């Protein structure tokens, strides 16, 4: 019975036969001299250059060399001297020695190996090349020269279809402007984009970047960093959940859980969004912004909607805008000082701090509390020692009003045009009120019994304090005044005109700086995912199915994967603290000023 085949089956059979023939395509060769030496090279042809180099051609790859040993039956050759391999127009390689198996399409090269691609050149001592996978691999140290940088590592793998290098172990990227050190780095040749995994640094003359996950555009000099990232400038350290960096503009921004540390002036600013301009020596920070000036004995905290710090280290100026709150504590915690205003200006060189009201957004006149003493006015100036930041004096301009809550009932009050206060060890010791002064005081005896209420008009008043309480009051150029028993002093006359006790606004602790404010809505951080673990470079093979040949220089055990050569950081085994919803898109990385949502 004659067997019939359908057209479809015939097509499948033909494709299978063609594919098998293609897979086992024989290596073609050309040589000026061809010899046999069965004793030294059994079953092999010895090919040599006379005028022209020995030439091999196999399925799109061409090889030139001075000498070769060709095992035709095994479809395998070993090449020596001035070797040049060419695969299409995109890959060329030179070396001193090479091997190639036409059946497995696997090559090995050693001795001054140099592989060139349109954007990069790879140099190493020995290189494995799998044409089926279109991958090259080295593990004895290598160097890749890019249009902008030079990259070196102990282990490297090149994926031709992705035009991607994956470097492991002692990875170094050297650029005229900076140097990158990393545990693991992926580099894309066409774009110059590098992805850093594990502890990594980017060092230059002006800055050092540290991260444990990051992206860097080696040609555009911009970066994005997450996971324990920070940027160190000459006198500032910037930390945050995510950092953006632009080297050309000397600009950096940070998002979420930010700290900007001034290493010279011993100050720190925190918040959830910040911009740093290194060349301008300026910092902008918002979203729960808090500046802390750290001294040996005292700490001054400034909180506002927005904080700006400008100037060289010796001339730093701090500005805060909208709902400014300050709190100053000492080591004892017994003499806190706090205040509120619409805006603040603090010059660290002169020690001058101004509490002022600049806009309609302000919630009233500036107010300052020193222990139980409340001072208000159109503006308040504080003078501190620039070295220790301990308070020296204060000035309250226009409509100055001092209120001290009496120990039992009522309020001691003093008002005038200008108030000057003097401090010792951060305690209010003396207050002078000048021009059109009015006072109202509750007078008590040594047993703290109320003996009367005094109301006096004068042009000039001095008040002395002991333990932050009014002890003595001296009137100069007294115009009018008397003391009346409590029962004879009308209750509706016990407050001077303009009286406004704001004790409920007083800040009693650092935590009180944020009282009544909602937690800021933080920007969702887009992380940088760890790379997927690629297939192992060397496939598992049977003992009689050699990747190269039994006549290879390399023992079969050399062509095995080693655990120490695999990726250290990969999605399969690492669970990161930052879980991205989607990978970061490089094109979406803009300067912080373009990110209006921040």
Automatic annotation (TrEMBL):
InterPro entries: LPS_export_LptA, OstA-like_N. It holds the Pfam family OstA_2. The keyword Signal applies. Residues 49-183 form the Organic solvent tolerance-like N-terminal domain. The keyword Signal applies. Gene3D superfamilies: Lipopolysaccharide (LPS) transport protein A like domain (2.60.450.10). Keywords: Signal. PANTHER family: LIPOPOLYSACCHARIDE EXPORT SYSTEM PROTEIN LPTA. This is OstA-like protein.
